[in-house]
Amino acid sequence: MSIRIGEVIGVQGIRITLRIDEDSNHEVLFYEGQKYKGVSIREYISIQRGFRDIICIIEGEYLDESRVESSNGKLGYIRKVEARPIGFFDTDGFQQGIKFMPMIQDPAYLLPESKIASIFDRSKAGDNFQIGKMLKEDIPVSLPWRRLFNSHIGIFGNTGSGKSNTLAKLYTVLFNNKLHSIVGKSRFVIIDFNGEYTGNQLAPNTEKIVYSLSTRPLKDTEQQNNKSVFPLESDEFWDTETLSLLFQATTNTQRPFLNRVIEGRRRYEKSNDSINAYAKKKFRDAFCAGQPKAATLDLMRTIARVANNQELIQALKNVNWHSLYSKFFQGNIYFNTDGSEYDKNILTTVDSLDVSTLDAFDQLIIRVNLQLIGDLINGYVQFDHIQPLLKRIESSLVSLRRVISVGDGVAIEKLVTVISLRRCNNEIKKVLPLLFAKHYYNSHRHTVNTPPDKTMHLIIDEAHNILSQQSNRESESWKDYRLEQFEEIIKEGRKFGVFITVSSQRPADISPTIVSQLHNFFIHRLVNERDLFLMDNSISTLDNISRSLIPGLAQGSCVATGTAFELPMLLQVDRLPHDKQPASEDVNLEILWS
């Protein structure tokens, strides 16, 4: 038995009106050793229809205009509430969905806390995946981890709302409960813009590798505890996609140019001296071409400077361009197409050029300059179209050398890989996450079986930094390319066992395509109308009452909804112990200023 609170007096569509007994207006009631919540907004009641319990959520409350006289002669009002059915109980437990509707005069009862918990806690026996309690009922609930981590997840909330703690709590509980089951079967890669997960967070240090990348010198403690550069294999670096990504190459001119650079290297890479022979041939072509190009002189000087060949640098300083004759000259010597002057005055110096021992970054500069010399002589490109790419390569390599190594081994494989970009400049923060996403996505996709026997989970904290459509700091073509790559991963990754978790304080800035592909959400406080409008239009499982609560949620409170949840759930996420919390706590001014 339970506590009767009233009866149905009206049914219009799926809106049910109940007349409530006056003495049911209590916050908490106890009956036969069970704890019950009183009648109020967002509480759950049971309407008995025959032998079946129809579960409803209360959405409104009002008083009838008519007055009634009680047995003791006191006048009072009739209290009414409006409710909406959400499911029913049968022999298999709670079933979501509207299948049965009550009729007038069906009695309504309060639900004990244990039965409310069974509506939301659909975990199997032995499961214990709790990250917090239901906010209103204060009941611990185990989340459906099987359906949760087999999906794309979005964690949204304004700064200070507790989203970082929710992200950390979610994966900390996963690794605490399932560590031995998932090692060797899954990988978790965290793109960490603010260095929040480089300490003892999430997983034991034995199962975690941290890359603290920095475009500035690292502190001694950071160099000792973490890796300071991310290793790429040579084949992955010498790839048109990778180089186009790193240097934001335009689609129609610069990308085909880089492709010719890669193809030329691949064609002759078996010979150790091939690049030296290639360089010497292009120098001869530049001086002895039928129609020499003035721009090739600066390209040759760049090659000499990168190779640090002082003799060649000095020799090229003495070479000039005669615009009237369209020839190179040195003093009173003009270089003709037969190559005789070149052989007498320049050949010996050029033969001393050795670029075969340079690292991959310097070789890239050498190769793009040599390729441009050849393309200009043959009339394949216009110098003004390719020069911006060369300048971007030279300027970007200063920072890339500090965060990437090429051909020095492969990335260490552990359960959790944290890539911290806290000490990187904005240019690197914009490019590297896409490089890492492609690196892990492609390596996983090409090795996994069908159906997938392994999974890869990409976690992007502060995702608006790279998934934003609002950025004005980059060209439209590059922004489209960047978003297309992530949209491909989130749309196609599920087939290969690749799942993305995105966390952001501005969901409206993120590509709508990406947000629409997310399956499950943890929504903390959001106050911006654009963010709330996006939540309304992207999440089909978010009801009006849950949506209306979002702007006023307290720190750590969130609405959990999506395909893994039967119903939207209001959670108060537990705070992690101090040493496990992400490094994103608010400053305590009382302590700081004391």
Cα Rg: 33 Å
Secondary structure: number of strands: 24
Strand order of the largest sheet: 10-24-23-22-11-21-20-12-19-13
The unreliable regions are none
**Shape assignment:** elongated
How does the major sheet shape up?
A: 10 strands, mixed
* Oligomer status: single chain
> In terms of structural class, how would the helical and strand content be classed?
alpha/beta
Topology-level CATH name of the largest domain = Rossmann fold
Q: At CATH's second level, what is the architecture of the largest domain?
A: 3-Layer(aba) Sandwich
Describe this structure in words.
- By secondary structure, the protein is of the alpha/beta class.
- The protein folds into three domains: 4-120, no CATH class; 145-227 and 412-592, P-loop containing nucleotide triphosphate hydrolases (Rossmann fold), CATH 3.40.50.300; 236-405, no CATH class.
- A ten-stranded mixed beta sheet has the order 10-24-23-22-11-21-20-12-19-13, with helices on both faces.
- β6 and β7 (75-90) form a beta hairpin.
- The two termini are 58 Å apart.
Notable traits:
single chain, 594 residues, alpha/beta, 6-stranded antiparallel barrel, elongated
Task: Please outline the helices and strands.
Blueprint: E1 4-12, E2 15-20, E3 28-31, E4 34-37, E5 44-49, E6 52-69, E7 75-90, E8 93-96, E9 107-110, H1 113-120, E10 132-134, H2 145-148, E11 153-156, H3 163-182, E12 186-192, E13 208-214, H4 220-225, E14 230-232, H5 234-237, H6 240-246, H7 254-268, H8 274-288, H9 295-307, H10 310-317, E15 319-322, E16 327-330, E17 333-334, H11 340-345, H12 347-351, H13 360-378, H14 383-403, E18 404-406, E19 416-423, H15 426-445, E20 455-460, H16 464-467, H17 476-492, E21 498-504, H18 512-516, E22 520-523, H19 529-538, H20 544-549, E23 557-562, E24 569-573, H21 589-592
Parallel strand pairs: 11-21, 11-22, 12-19, 12-20, 13-19, 14-18, 20-21
Antiparallel strand pairs: 1-2, 1-9, 2-7, 3-4, 5-6, 5-9, 6-7, 7-8, 10-24, 15-16, 16-17, 22-23, 23-24
Helix pairs in contact: 7-13, 8-13, 9-10, 9-13, 13-14, 15-17
